């Protein structure tokens, strides 16, 4: 028989599914996969439930229901000062991962170069390669994760179609500051490149930092594609509701890709997401404060056990160096070890690097968007194990 697509067939199962399956097998406290224990805001869930029972449950418009697209535009104005035309510049997708696929398949021609920043979310590389793009990887180094400007500039060329990056950044919890964003913008302008900005953690940001979208930087309004997620902003990751903001010229190709990818997203979930985006500022401030408190709870406890905990300025995650504990294996060995022997699951950070290049092998990522009791149980198990 003829073989299937060689690229997709060669890929392994995502590390999140592998570690979550191992956690289930060993009844481990799972701090690997990034989904909150909280149910999400009552009013958001109630709005979706009411629409399901009383609303229109047939195909919604391909671009998304008007109420959500309007809410996305209002949200961009409120938090980023952006003027967005909801009719021509907003698209609703079935999650931010579909949004990424729509953008990459819609904008990349085979042979185009795409700049990516490691460590990176694990879907980026397969999507870029399947779209025919040639990845040009630039690496951030712990513990500061500062942007290496010379290396980034060298990665750009006249063949660069776009840069794809995530801020706040999973897995290393970095938040790009204005000076770094302006440097990236300058390279995009110099080389006539676009930017796809994965901003799903835009409201989960700590220590009085502020999320700044690259779309707000000078001359980047028409070159930037902005991706958001109701799942992250409202602790409803199973809903898989994402949204894209882009100038009309870019949106046309992205929307045509979406048209033949999923076409639509459940209308009741779109209605709920619109309700969420219109919540008062206190909700978004409270979300960040609560996640910062959880970060501090887990990070402090892990430090006491003996982990070296790296700074975390946003997202759901803390990165730890486990070498001070005396473990001499790889990060995959370590994560399997603590799952089986301590009953706590984390994710190896090397999974967020290109397999063809040597990656750091001594970091584990822990997720803190859990109930306090869950975090405390994990800490107790780890403390008991490493005291032996």
Structure description:
By secondary structure, this protein is an alpha/beta fold. The protein has 2 domains: 6-40 and 282-386, Aspartate Aminotransferase, domain 1; 42-280, Type I PLP-dependent aspartate aminotransferase-like (Major domain) (Aspartate Aminotransferase, domain 2, 3-Layer(aba) Sandwich), CATH 3.40.640. The protein contains 15 helices and 13 strands. A 7-stranded mixed beta sheet has the order 2-8-7-6-5-3-4, sandwiched between helices. The chain has a 4-stranded antiparallel beta sheet with strand order 9-10-13-12. A hairpin with a 7-residue loop joins strand 9 and strand 10 (317-321). Helix 6 (96-107) packs parallel to helix 7 (124-130). The model has no long low-confidence stretch (mean pLDDT 96).
């Amino acid at each position: 028989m003829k073989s299937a697509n060689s690229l997709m067939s060669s890929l392994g199962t995502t590390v999140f599914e592998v570690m979550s399956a191992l956690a289930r097998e060993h009844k481990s406290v799972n701090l690997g996969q990034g989904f909150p224990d909280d149910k999400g805001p009552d009013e958001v869930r109630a709005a979706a439930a009411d629409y399901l029972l009383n609303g229109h449950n047939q195909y919604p418009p391909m671009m998304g229901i008007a109420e959500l697209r309007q809410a996305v535009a209002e949200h961009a104005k409120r938090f980023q000062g952006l003027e967005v035309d909801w009719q021509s510049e907003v698209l609703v997708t079935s999650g931010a991962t579909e949004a990424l696929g729509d953008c990459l398949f819609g904008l990349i021609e085979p042979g185009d170069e795409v700049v990516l920043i490691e460590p990176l979310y694990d879907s980026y590389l397969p999507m870029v390669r399947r779209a025919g793009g040639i990845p040009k990887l630039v690496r951030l180094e712990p513990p500061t994760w500062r942007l290496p400007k010379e290396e980034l500039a060298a990665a750009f060329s006249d063949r660069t179609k776009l840069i794809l990056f995530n801020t706040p950044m999973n897995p290393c919890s970095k938040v790009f500051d204005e000076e770094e964003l302006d440097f990236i913008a300058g390279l995009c302008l110099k080389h006539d490149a676009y930017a796809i900005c994965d901003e799903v953690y835009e409201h989960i940001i700590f220590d009085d930092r502020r999320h700044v979208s690259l779309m707000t930087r000078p001359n980047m309004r028409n070159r930037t594609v902005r991706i958001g997620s109701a799942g992250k902003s409202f602790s409803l990751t199973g809903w898989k509701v994402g949204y894209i903001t882009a100038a009309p010229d870019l949106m046309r190709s992205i929307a045509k890709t979406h048209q033949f990818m999923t076409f639509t997203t459940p209308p009741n979930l779109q209605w709920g997401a619109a309700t969420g985006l219109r919540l008062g500022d206190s909700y978004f401030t409270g979300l960040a404060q609560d996640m910062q408190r959880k970060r501090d709870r887990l990070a402090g406890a892990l430090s006491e056990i003996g982990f070296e905990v790296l700074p975390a300025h946003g997202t759901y995650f803390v990165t730890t160096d486990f070498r001070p504990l005396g473990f001499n294996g790889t990060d995959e060995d370590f994560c399997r070890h603590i799952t089986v022997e301590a009953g706590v699951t984390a994710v190896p950070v090397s999974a967020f690097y290109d397999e063809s290049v040597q990656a750091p092998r001594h970091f584990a990522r822990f997720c803190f968007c859990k109930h306090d009791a869950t975090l405390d149980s994990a800490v107790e198990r780890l403390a008991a194990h490493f005291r032996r």
